[in-house]
Amino acid sequence: MDMDKLVALCRRRGFLFQSSEIYGGLNGFWDYGPLGVELKRNIKDAWWRDMISGHNELVKPAGAPTTYEMVGLDASIIMHPQVWKCSGHFDLFCDMMVDCRETKHRYRYDQVRGRWAEYQGLKVFVTALGENEAQDIEQRAQKLFKLRAKEADKITWHGEIISLAKVEDLSKALAPEATEPGTLTAPREFNLMFKTIVGAMGGEEDAAFLRPETAQGIFVNFKNVCDSTRVRVPFGIAQVGKSFRNEITPRNFTFRSREFEQMEIEFFCHPTTSRKWYEYWRDRRMKWYTDLGLAGERLRLREHDKDELSHYSVGTADIEYAFPFLSAGEYGELEGIAHRGDFDLRSHMEGKLVKNAEGCLEVEMVDGADGKKVAKHRGSGRDLTYRDDLTNERFTPHVIEPSAGADRGTLAFLCEAYHEDQAPDDKGDMQTRTVMKFSPRIAPVKAAVFPLVKKDGMPEAAKEIYTALKKRFVTFYDEKGAVGRRYRRQDEAGTPYCITVDGQTLQDGTVTIRDRDSLEQWRIKSADVVEEIAKKVEG
Ligand code: ATP
């Protein structure tokens, strides 16, 4: 699939716009247009319904160790700065960046990729960013060595395309937009949290951060939820909301944005069953994507290797999608499912934790003013343990965290939906059409209603059906132009069903329904349209 075509469609049909476009846009920020907002909301609603509001705590789901409860939360975006000190984000939420002295551009160190090229004894690591990296690297090497296209085979290539992070001597690297090698600075740490000031006084002591993840809002409310509801471990708290990361190189459409939405669950369970719960959530979340229409061969579940795991994690898996803007064989993360042990609750009780020589977590200590050791970042001191009132056991629950990105999910569903196929036009000639094959459940518009012509009472009959449908579903009414063109517009929007009122409607009260994917058309009574659409889109 051609990513440029999808990006153009998203803009043309109102799925996605660049933020502040009339002022030239702002890198890393996106706006959802009228179709995009419906699509993303349907994805978030499906998640909320399937994971939280529709979860039946009386029935044990397949693969789950026991029954469990789920509740929701909506925490604030700006929280007490100590939250981020104890969670580790203040000290550790960094990416390594490199600057180019020539172009003044900044790059995320591990995301710049290139290949070693050699000509007449000069060996340079030639880099390129973006979709056509292999081709761009070759062209940049030719230009650097002042070779014409037909002399390209004079270049000796060493190894495959690798990350800049694997290159020891950066003075030999040609930065992505530079003309000469050796313009990159040594890598430096860059904290990804956006800083802001709370209140009118505006001193450094009033500095706060926009949350880089929604998860911490859940951990700091663990006790509130336990005390105010009757939930018992095992249970999950879920939240959907905006997160902010000052990404060094936002790119690949909405895949890496600076403002994005997350759908996160923190699932609290007993330490002895936590591994089983981890496996349950990993498989459950994978199935959710396939049920909503992400194809098997582009979607994969990848367990992290031991050396990839965070210092506190016993297991983490990513659900990944082969986005069309990535190189062949590469996948991008849609969701991470992490076994986080008791790291988060303990950090908010005791203070920021680090691993000691024995591999156990302990509070990180520094020298205090009087020479005595003090916690580097003090915890809340609150008791965030849990007492099981049946067994009387008190313990710090372990946490399983399925953390999904609503924007990356939306992007994957957009990529998956894009199809070009052949369909007859108004004269019956076959033409290429662009069709967004969303699963009806997430399609932004569920049905469109057309009068075949704008006379003979057809618009009136069509408007009546439209009004009835509109009460339950996002529906579109269109009476302009040839009916074939109206179908095409709905195909591009991904509307699964089109209902047409024609001459026969006025005689026998039936209308045609057209299926977006099979192009089949059949007649039903106008009075049955709402129930027919409900059956199809609600399952
Ligand atoms: P990456 O390695 O791609 O930066 P991550 O591992 O840091 O992602 P997490 O911290 O696990 O991501 O965040 C959970 C989810 O939030 C991700 O799976 C992704 O869907 C989403 N997400 C994270 N960063 C971004 C971003 N910059 N833009 C859009 N979505 C994001």
How would you characterize the overall build of this protein?
By secondary structure, the protein is of the alpha+beta class. The chain is built from 14 helices and 31 strands. The strands form 10 sheets. A 7-stranded mixed beta sheet has the order 3-13-14-24-17-16-15. Strand 30 (510-515) and strand 31 (521-525) form a beta hairpin. The two termini are 29 Å apart. The model has no long low-confidence stretch (mean pLDDT 94). Residues 213, 245, 247, 256-257, 260, 262, 333-336, 403-405, 407-408 line the site of adenosine-5'-triphosphate (ATP).
Tell how many strands the DSSP assignment holds: 31
Radius of gyration, in Å, reads 28 Å
Strand order of the largest sheet: 3-13-14-24-17-16-15
Number of helical regions: 14
* Helical content band: 25-40%
Poorly predicted segments: none
- How many structurally independent domains? 3
β-strand amount: 25-35%
Shape: globular
Structural features:
14 helices, single chain, 31 strands, BirA Bifunctional Protein, domain 2, 7-stranded mixed beta sheet, binds adenosine-5'-triphosphate, 539 residues, 5-stranded mixed beta sheet
